Automatic annotation (TrEMBL):
This is Luciferase-like monooxygenase. To bacterial alkanal monooxygenase alpha and beta chains. SUPFAM superfamilies: Bacterial luciferase-like. PANTHER family: LUCIFERASE-LIKE MONOOXYGENASE (PTHR30137:SF6). GO terms for molecular function: oxidoreductase activity, acting on paired donors, with incorporation or reduction of molecular oxygen. One of its GO terms (cellular component) is cytosol. Pfam families: Bac_luciferase. Residues 15-306 form the Luciferase-like domain.
Amino acid sequence: MKAPRPPRLSMLDLAPIVAGGDAAQALRHSAELARHVEHLGYTRFWVAEHHNMAGIASSATAVLIGHVAAQTRTIRVGSGGIMLPNHAPLVVAEQFGTLATLFPGRIDLGLGRAPGTDPLTARALRRDRFAGEDFPQQVAELRGYLAPAAAGQQVQAIPGAGTEVPVWLLGSSLFGAQLAAQLGLPFAFAAHFAPAQLEEALRLYRHQFQPSAVLSEPYAMACIPVLAASSDEKARRLATTPYQKFLNLIRGDRRPLPPPVDSMDGLWSPREEFAVRRDWLGEFVCGGPETVQAGLQSLLDRTGVDEIMLSVDCHHFPDRLRACEIVADILPTLRTAGAIPAAAL
């Protein structure tokens, strides 16, 4: 039985475009947020690939990772994730091999198999309606390009070969957990928008885990929505921004991130409220410092994850910065029985 210890703390960023703002502002804020959480001691800063969404500016994910890494010094920067079926594995290996060459020891490569967009845009990206069905083979091909080149290997990623960029598998269902376990890779669950199978996926990952050259034991992260503020009352008001965000997604409306409102009454139906609160934000931790501390500790008690990654949706950027500060202050009080962190991660 491992002694409880504080978990690692990390940040997921979608470069949100807020109502009244634009993509240029969103990208500036991404770099500023990364510098802020680096100063606070966060372990990693990941950006996620999404396409054709008016409220998200992280579509050119590798480019944004380079931008953020160039403006930080120590924090690990990576993808949460690259949607691999949208890309040729060789291209991803070249991009992340270049990033790892520019920023040695600081780049993570999180991989997912979802399109990160709607079906029409997915077809424009993938050109093949069967893309994603060979995801395990794509992962193997990509990892091969990042490994040291074999004698006689005719196709190489340059830069890329030999960089051995740490690969994570991401998931919002059981598939990613099973593949990560089979390959002996670290696993991150996307509970910030698909919480339903979090605990089952983690159990499956740990039960089926096969030790590898990368990990001797499982290493799991949960990405969850968090909104911390000075008081429960203030946090509840700020929470109307993510409530509206997911309500709009349910309705097929991809508008920029809306400002908070005094009340959601009249903005959603009872059925929509239930769907937002349960299906999208079932792991939402929201409140003042004491409430957030209790919520995060409850998550750790239920899941034993080694690392928590925050997804923080705030319309007003200073509120986002403050939320990250509050969670950093809480971190020393938290305890998880997860694995001892691996140096390579």
